[in-house]
Amino acid sequence: MKKILIAGASGVLGREVLSQIHQSGQYWVRAHIRDETKREEILPYCDEIVLADARYPEQLSGICDDIDIVFSTIGMSISMFAVEPGNFVDVDFKGNLNLLEEAKKAKVPRFVYTSIYASESSPRLMQGWSQEMFAQNLMHTNISHTVIKPVGMFTGLNDLIIMAKAGFLITPGSGKYKTNPIHPQDLAQFCVEQLESGPSVVEVGGPEVHTRNEVMDTVAEAMDVKLTVNIPEWIVRPGLLLIRLFSKNLYDKLSYFTYITTHDMVAPAYGKHTFEEYLKERADTKMPA
Ligand SMILES: NC(=O)c1ccc[n+]([C@@H]2O[C@H](COP(=O)([O-])OP(=O)(O)OC[C@H]3O[C@@H](n4cnc5c(N)ncnc54)[C@H](OP(=O)(O)O)[C@@H]3O)[C@@H](O)[C@H]2O)c1
Predict the structure, then answer these.
(1) Which of 14, 54, 273, 283 has its CA 20 to 30 A from that of 156?
(2) Domain presence at residue 241
(3) Which stretch of 88-97, 161-170, 261-270 has the lowest confidence by average pLDDT?
(4) Residues 104-119: pLDDT tens digits?
C-alpha cells in the first residue's frame, strides 16, 4: 500500500481530500496539521499525525520519510476575517519550500500542490506570487509533480456570507466579470484523481459560470439581504493603500480579492455541485461561517 502525506490536513481542502482517501482505503495516510487542538478531529481519518509549523524547517524534519506521495494544501487562509501568524511569502512560498526540501531528502517520488488559478498572471499580488514561486521551484525538481490551479472554492465565498449576516454585500468593480467556483468535495475528488499521475499544471473550476454580481445576488437572495453594492475600482485602490498602513496581510488579501473580482476567472469545468445547492446545504446544516 502506498504511503501519502497530506500537508495542511486540517484546512478546507485538506479535510475533504483526507476524508475521500480514508473512504477509499487505498493509502496509508500521514496527516500534517499545524494546530494541536485539531488533532482529535483529524485522527479518525489517518494512520499518523505530525504537528509542524511549516515556516520552521526543523519542525518538518523527517515528515516525508517513507512517503510515496506528498499532497500539500499548506497556505494562509484567503479569508479577510482570518487572523493567522505569518504572511503569504513565509507560509505559501517558504513553508512549502521547506516541505519540498524534506521531500527531496526523503527521495519522495511524487508531489502534488494546490496553488490558485491565474497565480502566474498576478505577480504583484503576494498570494499569487508566493504560490507561483513555489510552483516554479517544484517544477524545476526531478520529482514527478502536478500543480493544481483551482478558481475559488465555494468556501472561498464565505466572506460574502459573513458580510450578508451583517446586512450588506460588497463587490469591488463592476460585477460583470465571470467565474466558475467549485465545491470543496468536487475539488477534492479532482485532487485525488491527480495523486498518482497528472499533468505538470492543471486548471480546474466548477460546473457553472456566473458573473460576480450573480454570485452576490444569489447570496443576497438566500440570506434576504437588501443592500448590495459595487464599489468602483477608482475608490477601491486608494482604500487599499490606506489599509496597507494598518495590516499588510489584510491588504494582500483584499488586493487579491479585488484582482479576482475585476478579471474573468473561468477554468475548465469539473464536478456537479452548484453554488445554490451549497448555500442550501449550509442553511440546512446551520454551518458556522
Ligand atoms: N479557498 C479557496 O477558495 C481557494 C481557491 C483556490 C486555491 N486555494 C488554495 O488552495 C489551498 C488550500 O485552500 P483551503 O481553502 O483549504 O485553505 P485553508 O482552509 O486555509 O487551509 C490551509 C491549510 O494550511 C495550514 N497552514 C496555514 N499556515 C500554516 C503554517 N504556517 N504551517 C503549516 N500549516 C499551515 C492550515 O492550518 P490550520 O488549519 O491550522 O489553519 C490549513 O490546514 C491554499 O493554498 C489556497 O490558497 C484556495
Answers:
(1) 54
(2) no
(3) 161-170
(4) 999 999 999 999 999 9
Give 149 Cα–ligand 1 centroid separation in angstroms. Answer: 14
Domain count, the chain: 1
Q: How far is the CA of 19 from the centre of ligand 1 (A)?
A: 16
CATH of the domain at 103: 3.40.50.720
Residue 29 lies in a domain: yes
And the C-alpha cell for 110?
511524487
Which ligand 1 atom is nearest residue 127's CA? 47
- Whether residue 50 lies inside any domain: the answer is yes
Give the pLDDT of residue 289. 43
Ligand 1 binding pocket (C-beta < 6 A) is: 8, 10-14, 34-35, 53-55, 73-78, 86, 91, 95, 114, 116, 150, 152-153, 155-156
pLDDT at 156 (0 to 100): 86
State the residue range of the domain holding 94. 3-151+181-205
Q: Does the residue 252 lie in any domain?
A: no
